[in-house]
Amino acid sequence: MNTAAAVPTTADQPTPNAEPVARVLEVRFTGSGSEYFRIWAINLLLILLSCGLYLPFAKIRRIRYLYANTLIDGEALAFHGDAGKMFRGFVLLAVLMLAYTLAGEFAPAAALPAFVLLCVVWPALWRASMQFRLGNTSWRGLRFGFEGSLTDAYLAHLPVYVPMAVLTALVPDGQGPSSDPGVNSQFWFAVTLALLCLMAPWSTVLLKRYQHRGYRVAGERSEIVLRTRSVYFIGFKTVMAGVAMFLLAIVAAAIVTGCLLVLAHFGGVEAKSARSYFGLACVGLLYLLGAGGLLPYYAARIQNLVWGNTRSASLRFHSELTGLTRLNLRNWLLIVLTLGLYRPFAAMATTRLRLQGVRIASSTDPATWTASRAGRHADASGDVAGDFFGMDVGL
After folding, report:
1. Which of 53, 146, 323, 367 could form a disulfide with 130 if both were Cys (CB 3.0 to 4.6 A apart)?
2. Which pLDDT value is given to residue 76?
3. What InterPro entries does the record tag this protein with (predicted)?
4. Crossing angle of the two packed helices 228-265 and 181-212, in degrees rounded to 10
């Protein structure tokens, strides 16, 4: 009897610790600027006619369009949010902001308590918004979820709140390096702003850790390893880029002013306005370079860092977002040239670039995933805060 055929060869034997082969879940965005333009135009018209009350309903139309055109492994996302709950959350936030504004206008002494109240409730609102948004998002019929705790939401906001709280408590009104209370107020405002800028990378780390450790879908629980020094390094490079942009803006503004002075020599403009021209040119260029170049530079690198370090038991994420600054500058130019009409086209182009820069690899077949018991329980009972506030302030 030949036993060789009955013995499996080495090639046929499975390797005990072999990693399962990962399949790539392609992310595609199929939204069209021309299609979204119609939604944007109707939303804008109804918001104006309703004095802003249509805003949450416009937002739900926008979210549903974006989700329906976001395909992961060929399957689109779906949004099941209730417009009535979003309207209730919108009214609540509007009342809080109105109370703070009116307190500052008519009773300056009441402005601080109103601001403190807004700061106290904001982490809870932010957490509720993520629970609402993800709890009403589905893919392949599976509901997403967010399980971050309320305590961690407040801890994630500490780097933002501590500088303001300390300065408010320790610095009496009117005191400072000058005998002029107005100058002292500006001085302490600058100190607070500087501290907030120094704390911004740490705040980004805590907020992103909180978010990316709370995402859930089926049995998958996201985790992230995000080092604080990595975000500070990105922040340092962004500051250096900002300094370079500032110098570039001054040089460009000087060139513009010089051209205007030449025109003034020939009687085209008034020479006395040269200083005003220089100031306007500086402000315009700084705004364009900052909002159009600097912020996208920071956002792209943070996206690559954060999603590149996010994973779950079966999923691995990777982000290679490039060209966002170039696209954003182009969008700004076209928005200005078209008097704002290019805005919906710019939104679609930016969304497509950011989404398709993300790659997802899965070691299991998503078709075999089933809704977890916890997910079904959350869908049935809902979160009290999420149901009450029912709002989305942006993920």
Report:
1. 146
2. 96
3. DUF898
4. 130
